[in-house]
Amino acid sequence: MNFNLRIIKYKKLSPFLNMAIDEFFLLNNDGKTIILRFFGWEPPSISIGTFQKISELEIDYIKENNIPFVRRPTGGKGVYHDDELTYSIIIPKTHPIYELDIIESYKLISEVFIKSLNDFNINGKLTKKSGEIDGFCFSSQNYYEISVNGKKIIGSAQRRKKEGILQQGSIPFSIDYEKVKKIFKLLDVSRFSSLKEIKHDLKITDLEDSLIENFINFFNVDYKIDNLNEEELNSVNYLVLNKYSLDSWNLKGLY
Fold first, then answer.
1. Quick one: CA dihedral 16, 154, 105, 10, positive or negative?
2. Which residue ranges in the chain fall short of pLDDT 50?
3. Is 232 a catalytic residue?
4. Rounded CA gap, 30 and 163, in Å?
């Protein structure tokens, strides 16, 4: 089958809109289009995994500081999204990657990120599983996520459905360690790092451009850079209003 790659470039959106877009694309792909999307968060927000317990977060602190949070359609642990490049990849079930298990598909996709880090002389390495110790995504390492100097630098989560694969990931450029400690009740922040701690002059747009080029080469298909059309936005906004902005979704597991 001939596939094509649709690229949606970096834009800051609300947490509810970001997650609704990704779910919409996963459930409504045409079977031949791979979607690569880069985005940010406005305002800075928390996302938590589909099955994560709210008790792993300091809810009183979050409410006092009016920090929005949203439950992702993917699994994994929580992330505080501020100064970062976030990505999502939607791969239809007809693509050969869908036939691979989760770990092998992670490995393939992670190699692209390592190549882009190498473009900026950042020596990324594939991680091994180190176990979950708290509610923060970057405190633990899973198979074939990415670390630099032994510290996790990119956190990703994947969801598979009959329509295809959705993989979402966070690439922090800087981290507010004190805020993260309070949100996720952390004692130890030694297991993770941010890109600007390694290369202080790296820009989000530069990494995005490198990733776009390397993913085009990786998939080796025709591509176009695009935005959502009006019909897609209408469907996405329906998901925002009826799922991602609701406590009934975001607080699931609290009771």
1. positive
2. 254-255
3. no
4. 9
**Span 85-136, pLDDT tens digits:** 999 999 999 999 999 998 899 999 999 999 999 999 999 998 776 555 666 6
Q: State how far the Cα of 186 lies from the Cα of 79, in Å rounded to an integer.
A: 12
Q: Which of 67, 122, 137, 211 is catalytic?
A: 137
